[in-house]
Task: inverse folding
């Protein structure tokens, strides 16, 4: 009986997000006949690629107790720089490299403000949000860069029947999963986010971990930047506004805890698809814009309440066990 | 000693950077008087948001046009799409005793009392894109958003087929231009064509990427979409981008407003049906010439509009030439 209870509890903890995703997809299939078609599922995946790549970066940061509010702005800056590099050289490779380099530089500055100058991540990345958007607008004078020609292959092309953005999404997903589960850096991220003092005491070089995770985030934001511009076939300095919040929503719904130390790549992917499925079904069934905003907000609220609820239950259970242990000690002593 | 030196260096750096943060002067005049002794007027141009591509185009136009008026020193400020920021900038302009304040409102009603304050302070005020009407003593230079959509809607009456299925892309809710354009489509088209069915309508906030996403979803749930009715060109271009490789949607009618470089190229290629030119250069020229007339006493109040020309494949080349001359199309 006890074994059965433990199994169910572990199963629920590990896979509940996937069960929610499965249930949602079944409901959506009944709600609209066009939902569960190969075309529509490919369409959703392609739409989600950019924000999910950002969400993987946010997941690693949140696990380490960090956050990046500048992701949308840095994406726009990386994208317009990448697009400009393409216009100047005609090379897709150089465009990608310039975009990634821009993302990395911005994130090294973020890491510097947080790790070296001890600025809170919220404030430091908020500052970068404003600066990066400002640079993008200044550089383009607020105007879109048009005609990306062959560069659109990254965001609109396919290899066989699989759209290229989905290939990027899968590769980044596997990369994130590998980092979190099979590397020393992954273990360090959980340790730093779970308990920074304990991580320091156990010999983890916290600044090095923070710089590394921000650099990885920079690579992902830069990559997302060039994919985004390529998808919309323009360099949009005012594009991707609030994308950081979409990415954060995916991570939170996917079970990443804002307190740090908890989160998985699979959970974030599922979180992103939950948001994507909901957006898609609301559009397919013609739900109006205002109602869509309410639904999105309600889902974030539910995810956070669930996170706090499960954490409180866990704490109570631990305290209960501690009380029982103390009582046993007292009984034994008497 | 070294600490003192560092303090001095940091203070100097701060001073230099603060000086660099001031508004950009578009005239070389530093004082209130030119060399000949003639008065130099101080003009504040408060833009709605430089992150908005049309507002940025207009601000750039104003900056360029100001170079033609050596008797004016124009400072440009960014309202950052925020009522509070924009209102503070208007108050600052009053405090700094500008001779004339041009306001491109973020939200007309929110800026109305502040523009009234400008007039009360004895300064000239011009509202633009969109005008705040009914302020005594204030002038206005604008386009007519109702007409901008109206010229498209009236053309669409005979273009869009019977029993057509259409999708509608709206600008941000509460935005004057977004609402006037949607109102115009309702009165000039939908009210007269009850056979036309709207199969999707969303707010895409003027953005290409948001419009693209909505159109991708609508293309999944509809076998046929006959027309895309968009309140600006950016969103129309996004909708076209979403279905550009889908033969089912290759014969759609697509309407926009603004006359952006991208829209003109799409019209020329036959992919977009029409747009209405909201010419930021024409608007800037009119803004600066009106400012000059007010400041030199030639007129006391001006209320004027730029034209609302419909651009189709037949006349697109003349507008492409305008944008080429301005450097917006290379």
Result:
């Amino acid at each position: 009986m006890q074994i059965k209870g433990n199994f169910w509890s572990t199963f629920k903890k590990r896979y509940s997000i996937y069960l929610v995703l499965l249930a949602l997809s079944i409901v959506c299939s009944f709600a609209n006949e066009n939902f569960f078609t190969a075309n529509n599922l490919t369409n959703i995946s392609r739409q989600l690629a950019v924000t999910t790549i950002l969400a993987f970066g946010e997941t690693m940061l949140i696990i380490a107790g960090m956050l990046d509010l500048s992701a949308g702005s840095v994406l726009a800056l990386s994208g317009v720089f990448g697009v400009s590099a393409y216009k100047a050289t005609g090379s897709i490779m150089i465009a990608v490299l310039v975009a990634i380099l821009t993302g990395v530089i911005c994130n090294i500055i973020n890491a510097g403000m947080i790790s070296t100058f001890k600025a809170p991540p919220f404030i430091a990345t908020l500052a970068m949000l404003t600066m990066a958007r400002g640079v993008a607008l200044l550089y383009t004078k607020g105007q879109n860069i048009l005609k990306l020609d062959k560069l659109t292959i990254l965001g609109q092309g396919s290899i066989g029947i699989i759209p290229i953005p989905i290939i990027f999404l899968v590769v980044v997903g596997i990369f994130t999963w590998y980092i979190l589960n099979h590397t020393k850096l992954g273990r360090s991220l959980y340790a730093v986010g779970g308990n920074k003092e304990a991580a320091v005491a156990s010999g983890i070089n916290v600044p090095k971990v923070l710089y590394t995770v921000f650099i990885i985030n920079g690579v992902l934001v830069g990559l997302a930047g060039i994919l985004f511009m390529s998808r919309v076939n323009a360099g949009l300095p005012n594009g991707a506004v609030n994308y950081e919040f979409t990415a954060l929503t995916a991570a939170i719904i996917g079970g990443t805890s804002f307190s740090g130390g908890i989160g998985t790549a699979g959970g974030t992917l599922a979180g992103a698809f939950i948001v994507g499925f909901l957006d898609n079904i609301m559009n397919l069934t013609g739900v109006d814009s205002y109602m869509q905003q309410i639904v999105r907000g309600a889902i974030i609220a539910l995810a956070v309440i669930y996170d706090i609820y499960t954490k409180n239950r866990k704490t109570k259970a631990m305290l209960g066990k501690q009380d029982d242990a103390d009582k046993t000690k007292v009984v034994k002593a008497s | 000693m070294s600490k003192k030196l560092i303090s001095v260096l940091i203070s100097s750096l701060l001073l230099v950077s603060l000086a660099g943060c001031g508004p950009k002067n578009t005239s070389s005049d530093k004082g209130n008087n030119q060399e000949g002794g003639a008065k130099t007027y101080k003009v504040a141009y408060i833009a709605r948001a430089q992150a908005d591509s049309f507002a940025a185009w207009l601000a750039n136009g104003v900056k360029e046009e100001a170079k033609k008026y050596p008797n004016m020193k124009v400072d440009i400020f960014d309202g950052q799409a925020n009522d509070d920021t924009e209102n503070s900038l208007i108050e600052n302009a009053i405090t700094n005793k500008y001779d004339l304040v041009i306001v491109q409102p973020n939200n007309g009603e929110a800026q109305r009392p502040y523009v009234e304050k400008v007039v009360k302070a004895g300064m000239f005020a011009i509202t633009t894109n969109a005008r705040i009407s009914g302020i005594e003593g204030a002038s206005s230079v604008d386009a007519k958003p109702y007409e901008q959509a109206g010229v498209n809607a009236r053309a669409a009456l005979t273009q869009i087929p019977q029993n057509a299925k259409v999708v509608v892309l709206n600008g941000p809710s509460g935005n004057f231009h977004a609402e006037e354009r949607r109102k115009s489509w309702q009165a000039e088209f939908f009210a007269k064509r009850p056979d036309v069915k709207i199969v999707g309508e969303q707010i895409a906030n003027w953005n290409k990427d948001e419009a693209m996403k909505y159109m991708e979803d609508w293309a999944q749930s509809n076998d046929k979409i006959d027309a895309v009715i968009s309140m600006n060109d950016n969103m129309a271009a996004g909708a076209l981008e979403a279905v550009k490789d889908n033969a089912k949607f290759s014969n759609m009618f697509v309407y926009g407003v603004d006359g952006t470089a991208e829209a003109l190229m799409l019209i020329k290629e036959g992919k977009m049906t029409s747009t209405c030119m909201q010419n930021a250069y024409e608007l800037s020229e009119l803004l600066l010439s009106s400012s000059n007339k007010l400041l030199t006493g030639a007129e006391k109040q001006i209320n004027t509009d730029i034209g609302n020309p419909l651009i189709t494949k037949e006349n697109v080349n003349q507008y492409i030439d305008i944008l080429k001359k301005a450097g917006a199309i290379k």
Q: What stands out?
A: The CA atoms of residues 26 and 36 of chain A lie 9 Å apart. The radius of gyration of chain A is 22 Å.
